[in-house]
Amino acid sequence: MAELDALRMQLADIDRGIMELVGKRNAIAKIIGERKAAANEEVVVPSVETVVVKRYVDAGAAAGVSAAAATRIARAVIDESVEVQGRVPRHAEPKSICIVGGNGAMGRWLSAFFADRGHAVSVAVLDPANALYPVMTVAEACKNAEVIVVSTPVTSAAAVLAEIFASKTSALVFDILSVKSPVESVLRQMVDAGMFVCSVHPMFGPSAPSVAGRNIVAADCGCAAAVEEAAVLFSGGTVLRMPLEEHDAAVAYVLGISHAVNLAFSEALVRSGFSAETLNAVSSTTFRKQTAVSREVSRENAALYYAIQRENPYNDAAVGHLADAVSELRTLGKEEFCERMTAGAAWYQA
């Protein structure tokens, strides 16, 4: 037993040394991040990450570490560097930005994000007493703000945009809704009237420490210049430009079907009659990975997830494909079952 304790103490020393090295690596990564921020360069550079992963795999082979383990370690270290660099402030030309719905989770995230970048942030909220930033009305924002961000529930966004439309403000205006169909009409009317409008969708939630390594969709409603100005505001993230009409169809799979899979998986476990403790005790690698994601989804904003499921007109088809696929898997013969798995693997490689 004493021998084991001594060996474990050696491991503890090595673990502390590893953390010290990661800390030193982060310090260098921060300096690189500062250089990137000054040059307004992207934080994530896939070609560089590929080189880093290969470096770990090669070093792992020489040290007796499997390629799979070396790759996982490389990804963890790279992701840590991305987060360090993503937290480096990026100070662009300061603008006055009003967040409509600035007391919500994403509203507060956006407020802090823009304030950290040197912008003058205000909010238009229903509960001014709980506001963290100066408060103004939507009408005041339309007169005084250079950027107006609509960060409200889907159910109230169209009315807010209609009020902004009526003002004919010259500000850059965009929403951050997960579903665009309910506001597509008013967005296009605003653009047709010559207003500076686009539609943005951060593909992450308010727990994200930064935009680095994360996708932000900038949907074009007909004003390409507005898309580009919005993209500048989110520099450091990966800004993906697409036509507004394509957004909901893609998101039906990216969010709608992925949420449905995880919610249904959790519901099936609840109905199983087994406790989480029992199933976790006999879990497989796949089960652990799936439950980790499903557990996170189950703790998200239920009202928002309901809206994503019910407000997107493309979700019925996407979830229908899921239901059909699950149903068919129960009836396929061995040969066709294997063919389906092969086709699925080929899709990921395309």
Automatic annotation (TrEMBL):
<keyword id="KW-0560">Oxidoreductase</keyword>
<dbReference type="Pfam" id="PF01817">
    <property type="entry name" value="CM_2"/>
</dbReference>
<dbReference type="InterPro" id="IPR002701">
    <property type="entry name" value="CM_II_prokaryot"/>
</dbReference>
<dbReference type="InterPro" id="IPR036291">
    <property type="entry name" value="NAD(P)-bd_dom_sf"/>
</dbReference>
<dbReference type="InterPro" id="IPR036263">
    <property type="entry name" value="Chorismate_II_sf"/>
</dbReference>
<protein>
    <submittedName>
        <fullName>T-protein</fullName>
    </submittedName>
</protein>
<dbReference type="GO" id="GO:0008977">
    <property type="term" value="F:prephenate dehydrogenase (NAD+) activity"/>
</dbReference>
<dbReference type="Pfam" id="PF02153">
    <property type="entry name" value="PDH_N"/>
</dbReference>
<dbReference type="InterPro" id="IPR050812">
    <property type="entry name" value="Preph/Arog_dehydrog"/>
</dbReference>
<dbReference type="GO" id="GO:0070403">
    <property type="term" value="F:NAD+ binding"/>
</dbReference>
<dbReference type="GO" id="GO:0046417">
    <property type="term" value="P:chorismate metabolic process"/>
</dbReference>
<dbReference type="Pfam" id="PF20463">
    <property type="entry name" value="PDH_C"/>
</dbReference>
<dbReference type="InterPro" id="IPR003099">
    <property type="entry name" value="Prephen_DH"/>
</dbReference>
<dbReference type="GO" id="GO:0006571">
    <property type="term" value="P:tyrosine biosynthetic process"/>
</dbReference>
<feature type="domain" description="Prephenate/arogenate dehydrogenase">
    <location>
        <begin position="95"/>
        <end position="350"/>
    </location>
</feature>
<dbReference type="InterPro" id="IPR036979">
    <property type="entry name" value="CM_dom_sf"/>
</dbReference>
<dbReference type="GO" id="GO:0004665">
    <property type="term" value="F:prephenate dehydrogenase (NADP+) activity"/>
</dbReference>
<dbReference type="InterPro" id="IPR046825">
    <property type="entry name" value="PDH_C"/>
</dbReference>
<dbReference type="GO" id="GO:0004106">
    <property type="term" value="F:chorismate mutase activity"/>
</dbReference>
<dbReference type="InterPro" id="IPR008927">
    <property type="entry name" value="6-PGluconate_DH-like_C_sf"/>
</dbReference>
<dbReference type="InterPro" id="IPR046826">
    <property type="entry name" value="PDH_N"/>
</dbReference>
<feature type="domain" description="Chorismate mutase">
    <location>
        <begin position="1"/>
        <end position="89"/>
    </location>
</feature>
